[in-house]
Amino acid sequence: MLLACGPGTEAEPQGQPSDQDVKAQSCVQLYRPQRSSYFDSFPMREDGQVGGCETGPDCIPVCWGQESPYYVHQDYFYCTYCPSP
Questions:
Q1: Integer Cα distance of 25 and 83 in angstroms
Q2: What are the b/e assignments for 7-36, b being 16+ CB within 10 Å?
Q3: C-alpha–C-alpha distance, residues 59 and 33, integer Å
Q4: Which residue intervals make up region (Disordered) (predicted)?
Q5: Roughly how many angstroms between the first and final C-alpha of the chain, as a whole number?
Q6: Closest CA to 23 of 85, 79, 72
Q7: pLDDT tens profile 15-67
Q8: N or C: which end of the chain has fewer CB within 10 A?
Q9: Cα 72 to Cα 35: distance, rounded to the nearest angstrom
Q10: Residue 76: enclosing H or E segment and its boundaries?
Q11: Per-residue confidence band for 83, with pLDDT thresholds at 50, 70 and 90
């Protein structure tokens, strides 16, 4: 029979995820437009822009103005969204 002594020889319980594991598993990677622009009509023109959004690396958009049915999405990228617990 072989016995080990000293620090670090205790076996950690398996099957219980740590808080870090749970947080990492709840995050998702999304493919989103980095910029969205909304216009008052079609054809779209710069002076007819009525709103817009810019999405950060956390997938949360910061918007201004208003949305409309005439829009352009640009610069698609992958961002990481982690919902609040």
A1: 11
A2: eeeeeeeeeeeeeeeeeeeeeeeeebbbeb
A3: 9
A4: 1-21
A5: 47
A6: 85
A7: 555 555 544 568 999 999 999 999 999 888 889 999 999 999 999 999 999 99
A8: N
A9: 8
A10: strand 70-81
A11: confident
Q: Which pair of structure tokens corresponds to residue 68?
A: 């409309």
Query: Residue 37: CB partners within 8 Å, gap ≥ 6?
Result: 44, 49, 51, 52, 71, 72, 74
Give the three-state DSSP class for 22.
helix
Token pair for 12? 């950690």
Give me the helices (H) in the chain, please.
Answer: 19-26
- Give the residue extent of every domain in the chain: 27-81
